[in-house]
Amino acid sequence: MTDSEVTSADSVGRPVLDRLRIGSAPDSWGVWFPDDPQQVPWRRFLDEVAEAGYEWIELGPYGYLPTDPARLTEEVNRRNLKVSAGTVFTALHRGPEVWDSTWAHVSQVAELTRAMGAHHLVVIPAFWRDDKSAAQLESSELTADQWGHLARGMNRLGREVRERFGLNIVVHPHADTHIDTEAHVVRFLDATDSDVVGLCLDTGHYAYCGGDNVKLIETYGERIGYLHLKQVDPEILADVVENEVPFGPAVKRGVMCEPPLGVPELPPVLEAAQGLGVDLFAIVEQDMYPCLPGRPLPIAQRTRRYLRGCGA
Questions:
Q1: What digits encode the pLDDT tens for the residues 187-234?
Q2: Can you spell out the DSSP letters for 120-154?
Q3: Looking at the domain assignment, is residue 2 inside a domain?
Q4: Which keywords has UniProt assigned to this entry (predicted)?
């Protein structure tokens, strides 16, 4: 075991997870779309995420928070918040013909992300089910040609984003996308350039799709550049898997739950991430779309206390 793999402890025996920068995101307030009447207003999100004790936030879907850098800077500064990343959605498996539209979207988000002083773009691959209706849009499995398009397109995206904006892309394995299970995540990592394509490991989504988070960190730790923290309710997940419930309806059933009520256990995951010996953002994301306006804040406060108790 190397020095970087040893996690120190504080005076009461808790591990000191000082390489992890804890934050939260609009997703934890039930925000999935730039504009939706079921979502809390952006000012309320900013007020409450600060009240819950978080310092770092993500931009969420582009257009939910103000897109004017000066205005957004003023809003986050007066709440003592900072931005860790922006988020983009891509369908690069569809081939070179989608590059121009993809780049138009990515450039817009990357420009705001850079202006806010962040250094990461979280890249979410396209859903093979519609995110609102849950209707199946395409096959859940990629062909060999589509895997090639995906890998080449993501390599190009990583290079272009770094060269033009100075940002690093971290690709987010996600339920109901083509990068979901351990086999698919490993295939993607092995097919892409480690110099320009990192991984955003979402603990909840990876567990939802049957993956072992600690194993992935220990095996592909050099690729992990960012974390999303969430848990899955194992009883609801078992029913979701058995009945092939799409992700959107599964979220409405409460498949994503607050820690420590679900899986994976977060302490081993956090300690494995600390053991990588690099600074990582660890952003809480509890999918709750849609949810009652008063529900997110108490959960966020309890989650922040729980993570402090874990040493983070």
A1: 999 999 999 999 999 999 999 999 999 999 999 999 999 999 999 999
A2: EEEEEEPBSB-TTT--B-S-SS--HHHHHHHHHHH
A3: no
A4: Isomerase
